[in-house]
Specification:
Layout: H1 2-11, H2 26-94, H3 96-159, H4 162-183
Subcellular location: Membrane; Plastid, Chloroplast thylakoid membrane
Transmembrane segments: 32-49
Coiled coil: 71-98
Amino acid sequence: MKNVTDSFVSLGHWPSAGSFGFNTDIFATNPINLSVVVGVLIFFGKGVLSDLLDNRKQRILNTIRNSEELRGGAIQQLEKARTRLRKVETEADQFRVNGYSEIEREKLNLINSTYKTLEQLENYKNETIQFEQQRAINQVRQRVFQQALQGALGTLNSCLNNELHLRTISANIGLLEAMKEITD
């Protein structure tokens, strides 16, 4: 506890400056603050983060598997469409004289609709994957922030007790009185 109090007291007294003051150099203080925050985040959030990422990974893999099954169903539909196409082609040979142009139109419509269905399924799969990834990232960010904040508050509350608080206040009052005597 003495070291913590001494560090609070020494924050206001810089022998080279000769007076009390705060370090307002943002370039010197920000790396220290950021390294403390990153250290706390890594220390408190790495287990939760890995669990969340593992869970999200499993969900995404399940989504991919489901999409692959849908793709397999679409491929089966494509094979059925191809079989139907072959059937239509044989019928076209039989009815070539009567309705050749209409059969060709049906063939093209069937192929186009099948490819559109495949494209829609592929787009749905990609959108689902992107949505799930973004949702997982947002959930992980939110959880890490909450846990880091709770950990920091818990650490601050456990470190500050009445004795330390009173000693810090007394030391700061002493520094202010010394500053007042210097300015008078």
